[in-house]
Design goal:
single chain; 324 residues; alpha/beta; Rossmann fold; two-stranded parallel sheet; 20% strand; elongated
């Protein structure tokens, strides 16, 4: 599995007074010995008078150079013992621009800030963070909080029973990245498994009379054995959490109880009518979790974003005024 050696930071506003995503990315890069690239997508439409359209290239260049200069200011503030480079490109929509920039940089991690608004009907509104979660093959760290990482509690959300159609290798990916981040930041690694309270396999004779308590106890025992096989020595026994509940409730509850600063979990992208009916656990936790989220995709996840930048969005107008 890949080490985290290059981190692309998606910068929404280079002039923002606070850039927690950049701060945290640099903190992680220092611990890992990784490179950092600050990237801003120039994705806003450019309104051009058709009589001045020949000046479009010059307008694009001036705007891009202004953004790059500001990114360099941020890079000098954040840099030091690690390499921090900058990039800005005319490209849209923003989530595709970030994915293309990550591909060009050969990034092993994307860091981005979570959209501040609630993600109601995100598949229709196309929030950048939601689309990164859905489409990026590169792991994405979504930053929700401002406090820096100081020996953080990291929670990996696993599904050893693969009850929700998760690929078998995804748990290994989640554990790999969770362990790497925890070691680098000298944190504490926890694991949570939200399991089905009904045990696997055929019913035993007389099981119906045994009552719900015995059934739940057997299911808990099977779940613990499955989690133990998955994490092995990566997570101490005292930090393994077995919850007989829906994953959204279980992950949120455990994250709050242990004071997690990062939750690492997997996501598989769905499309069409099926994705409108079957929600993804990571998507449902976007607004619910009070901490940062590191989203990991299966190894064989296929990239569906074209790698050729689109350039600037141009909106031309004639400059002719009309009225009543």
């Amino acid at each position: 599995m890949k080490a985290i050696s290059r981190i692309l930071v998606a910068i929404k506003n280079p002039w923002a007074r606070s850039l927690p995503a950049a701060d945290k990315a640099v903190r992680l890069a220092r611990a890992l010995g990784a490179e950092v690239r600050l990237f801003h997508a120039l994705s806003e439409p450019v309104v051009v008078d058709v009589r001045e359209i020949q000046n479009l290239a010059n307008l694009e260049r001036i705007r891009r150079e202004r953004v790059l200069a500001q990114l360099m200011v941020v890079a000098r503030r954040l840099g030091g013992e690690i390499t921090v480079t900058v990039a800005a490109e005319w490209d849209y929509p923003p989530h595709e621009a970030v994915i293309r920039a990550a591909h060009q940089f050969k990034a092993s991690l994307i860091v981005a800030e979570l959209h501040p608004a609630s993600h109601r009907m995100p598949w229709l509104l196309r929030f950048t963070d939601f689309e990164l979660l859905r489409l990026s093959a590169v792991p994405v760290l979504l930053v929700k909080t401002r406090p820096p990482y100081t020996h953080p509690v990291v929670l990996v959300a696993l599904d050893p029973g693969h009850a929700r159609a998760k690929p078998a290798g995804l748990d290994a990916q989640i554990l790999h990245y969770g362990s790497a981040v925890t070691r680098a930041l000298r944190g504490a690694l926890h694991a949570v498994y939200a399991h089905n309270p009904r045990p696997a396999g055929p019913a035993l004779p007389g099981e119906g009379a045994a009552g719900a308590a015995d059934i739940a106890k057997k299911a808990q025992s099977q779940a613990r054995a499955a989690l133990d096989r998955t994490v092995r020595s990566s997570v101490t026994r005292a930090r393994r959490h077995i919850i007989a509940h829906h994953p959204v409730e279980a992950i949120d509850t455990v994250a709050r109880e242990i004071g997690a600063q990062i939750v690492v979990m997997g996501a598989i992208s769905r499309s069409g009518a099926r994705r409108l009916v079957i929600g993804n656990t990571a998507e449902k936790l976007l607004d619910r979790l009070a901490c940062d989220m590191l989203i990991v995709k299966p190894i064989d996840f296929s990239n569906r974003v074209p790698m050729t930048p689109r350039g600037a969005q141009m909106v031309a107008h004639s400059g002719v005024q009309t009225g009543y």
